[in-house]
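Appendix B. One record, verbatim.
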Amino acid sequence: MTAERGVRPAGGNKVRFNIGGTLFLTFDDTLKHFPESKLANLSTCRDNYDDDTREYFFDRNPVLFGFILDAYRKEEIHLPSDICGPTFRKELEFWELSLSHVAPCCWEALYKSDDDIKTVNKLMDNYKENASMCSELDNHNKWRKTLWLFLEDPNSSKFAMAWVSFISILVLASTAAEIMLTLPQFHEDFTESEMKTVDLVLDIYQFKNGTTELFKSMKPNVYLTTTIMCCQVILTAELILSFMVCPKKKSFACNFIRVSATLGYVGFWVAYVFDSHLVTMEDNAWVYVYIVCKYGVILRLARLFYLSKHIPTFNVVGLTFSSSMSEFKILVFLLGILVCVFGYMMFASEYFGNENMRTMLSAMYWALITLTTVGYGDIIPFSVAGQVIASVCAVCGVIVLALPIGIISSTFYKFYNFNSYATTHLRLTSSMLKKTREEKKGIACTT
């Protein structure tokens, strides 16, 4: 193995490298700074040596090799912040250089792209799930695929967009009607026959006289209940139809929002049947079922997430929360410690002079409300020591909340930007593929 030689006492023999057409020249003594690397053991690279040009040829990126060769000179690896970390790690693996030689100042550049890759993968998983559903629908009847896209993808056609808008209006209208039902001017009095069931409910809850009189005048307005029922008929039918045409029923049934909405719909219809037969309902067991269903109707509020399903920003919020679980764990852990510490300190300082802090639980409740900067003011310290502790507690709460919130905000910003890039990229690639298929189809027709 002979390379171009020139005697230099300080540097040894010269070695020429041809990296992707770019020539590099260095001393063999320089390459010995990392003895475990490929360049330090050129005897294993005989297949890359050219006897005519007396140089080693590697079909690699010459820009990245410049940083590799510079690492031998500095005896540590440095890389600019604009280089893709995973790509540079592959280059280090090829040249058999250990990651331990990377300087600490360049760790961010080496690893920051990993978070970007995770972000893109999570976003692409959502797109792939929808794409896989559509690919499975290709194996079914054409009407089934058309109906699924009509119900679930508003961008598939103008009619699908109109349907999504209509469903959204129904969700808002039924929610507004339920809010109006809580207003006193929309209440009616129960009939004498219905009061028997109402009395059973009151006996179960053991309400006092004031609450009893209020409960007896809380019969829902018939027009509002009719409006809600009409909306529920369409929304329930839409949910059932979506389940029937869905290609992945297991994935559909395991969706938390859909399960919650389904339980809410079931509770609504059961409660509606009971409301229609209040006169004949005299058994306590049926009354308990009626009460459970009435409370279960609150699950229908999950349908409000239907409005967010087709808005990319809301999907980004969900991904942000799921990706920030470690930050939330830190927040909960710190809050738990501080609640215990400040709760005990406040309990000890206020025990003899404050009737509202005679237990640790009440003191810990005060600490939690103060740390989260809510500050109801229902429990306040009276002693000087308690006021000092309260001041320190409030300052600690601001600091503890500010630390993870900044990280979560940056995560949201990252997801939002990558979602915009992914949407643009997929739209352009799909339009190009569609254009290519049309051109091939036109050529096939002419031939």
